[in-house]
Amino acid sequence: MKIYISGEYFEKSEAKVSVFDHGFLYGDGVFEGMRAYGGKVFRLHDHIERLWESAKGIALDIPIAAAEMEKAINETLDVNGIKDGYIRLIVTRGEGTLGLDHYLCRDPQVIIIADKLALYPHELYENGLEIVTASTIRINPSMLSPQVKSMNYLNNILAKIEAYKAGCVEVLMLNSRGEVAECSGDNIFIYKRGVLHTPSPEAGILEGITRRAVLEIAIKTGLKVKESPMTRHDIFTADECFLTGSAAELIPVVKLDSRIIGTGKPGEITKKLLKLFQEETKKS
Ligand code: PMP
């Protein structure tokens, strides 16, 4: 495996950043997780745009132009011979001192890792996920915007620890108002009485690229969509529920906090949207 670090390729064992990099010391940096299908990155432009927004949000100047970044991503896929896989793109604040002073970090590092994908096991797509609600609250947008896909994922990791303790692989996170926000690494949707519903960005979520693609597909197929506050009650009483993410694509959810959602089996709308989403990835 060859890893791109700021213009050069390194073998995995040689791919290193400084322990003084503030990405390492403080989680000071931003990242993207992308998927390649048939050698092409799905919605690459959207990922690049979100990366630049995340960086702007933390006053980090990405050291290369967007076009150069796109070229480096495609080249990293080629160098590794990966046509279908996952790409992790990271921009760290760069090497500094042990203090917090970001302005002393003069050389932000760009890292690109392309790898085969470890998806959720196939049976979970067939049978659906069981999730639990975390007692860890999704970070409040007034503290740090969840729109910033930062290198500090401790909020999500604390929730994920709760998932594993409960025997689940994903976990529902509420916001500080007690509304549904998203899962630790996925957005959430429900389908109820003919309407596809997902929390709006005001709920304090990362606006997923997959979420956006699914909303577009749903609108195209004539489904009614609603982006508005959602509570756990809405999930308990939904006909169907599913999660979206670059790695997960669309994955059905059949239980929340041990309570069966809908029929307890992946729903027809979920299956249809997954099929349409997969067709969309072939087009890109
Ligand atoms: N929410 C969070 C917190 C995430 O980390 C992610 C990405 N793993 C998502 C939602 C889904 O975003 P995307 O569809 O862009 O992968």
Commentary on this structure:
- This protein has 284 residues and is α+β, with helices and mostly antiparallel strands.
- The protein has 2 domains: 2-115, D-amino Acid Aminotransferase, Chain A, domain 1 (2-Layer Sandwich), CATH 3.30.470.10; 122-281, Alpha-Beta Barrel (D-amino Acid Aminotransferase, Chain A, domain 2), CATH 3.20.10.
- It is 30% helix and 27% strand.
- It contains 8 helices and 15 strands.
- The chain has helices spanning 22-26, 44-57, 66-79, 122-127, 154-165, 209-220, 232-236, 268-283, and strands spanning 2-5, 8-11, 29-37, 40-41, 85-92, 109-115, 129-133, 171-174, 180-183, 187-192, 195-198, 224-227, 240-245, 249-256, 259-260.
- The strands form 2 sheets. Strands 7, 8, 9, 10, 11, 12, 13, 14 and 15 form a 9-stranded mixed beta sheet that branches. The chain has a 6-stranded antiparallel beta sheet with strand order 2-1-6-5-3-4.
- The site of 4'-deoxy-4'-aminopyridoxal-5'-phosphate (PMP) has 14 residues, from helix 6 and strand 13.
Distance between the termini: 25 Å
| Rounded radius of gyration (Å) | 19 Å
Strand fraction band? Answer: 25-35%
Main sheet attributes: strand count, strand direction, barrel closure: 9 strands, mixed
Whole-number mean pLDDT: 97
User: Segments where pLDDT lies below 50 for 5+ residues?
Assistant: none
Oligomer designation: single chain
Structurally, the number of domains stands at: 2
